[in-house]
Amino acid sequence: MTPTRSVDTQRLSIVAHEHEKQLVQFYGELKDGRETANVLTRIGTGRFLVMMEAHGDPAALAAMTYAGKLIDDLGMYDDFTLWVAGSADGNVHANCVLSGEPTNLCIRRRENDGLKDSHPLVQAAVDTYETLFELPPVITQSSSAIGPKGVPSIAFGPGEDGGHLLQAAQFYAAFPMMFAATMKRR
User: Please, what are the domains in the chain?
Assistant: First the structure.
């Protein structure tokens, strides 16, 4: 088994703060419709496939886009392939989907879909949150659909008004490494 890389949270925070002004500006452009929200980007070539889809939310798309920049700037590549989409179609072939709904930094899972707190996706999200913010996350449930059918999915995102952009970008940047580490431990 390959040793698991750890997330350098201090360096991640520093680099994220260096890009905060551009992130907020990009969010404003997306929100005002000056930029397209229909994107599909691939980062990495590892065996664990992570899909992040902004679910049409400009704040989530801005944070996910800057997460890709953080991953690249910090060399946070591991055994994952990350797909970032403005909106994912129904043909997602991934190990998990992280939907960027405006949850105000809460982890949201769908009720009655069998996705328990011990599921690797939920555990990776909890580990990411606790590692970055040194607090336990709030986990909520939703009766609405989260992600495509048949693919383990959770929602996590900034607030509806674009609040928590920087924290969401850091979470999105660290999550793929944490998910790969969680899957390797199984």
Answer: 9-185 (3.40.630.10)
* pLDDT over 70 (residue 29): yes
Residues 6+ apart with CB under 8 A from 121: 96, 115, 152, 153, 154, 179
Is the model's pTM score more than 0.85? yes
Place of tokens 């005002």: 32
Please list, in sequence order, all residues whose beta carbon lies within 8 angstroms of the beta carbon of residue 72, skipping any fewer than 6 positions away: 43
Q: What is the pLDDT of residues 73-82, one digit of tens each?
A: 999 988 999 9
Give the per-residue SS3 of the chain: CCCCCCCCHHHHHHHHHHCHHHHHHHHHHHHCCCCCCCCEEEECCCCEEEEEECCCCHHHHHHHHHHHHHHHHHCCCCCEEEEEECCCCCCCCCCEEEECCCCCCCEEEECCCCCCCCCHHHHHHHHHHHHHHCCCCCEEEECCCCCCCCCCEEECCCCCCCCCHHHHHHHHHHHHHHHHHHHHHC
- Is residue 31's pLDDT more than 80? yes
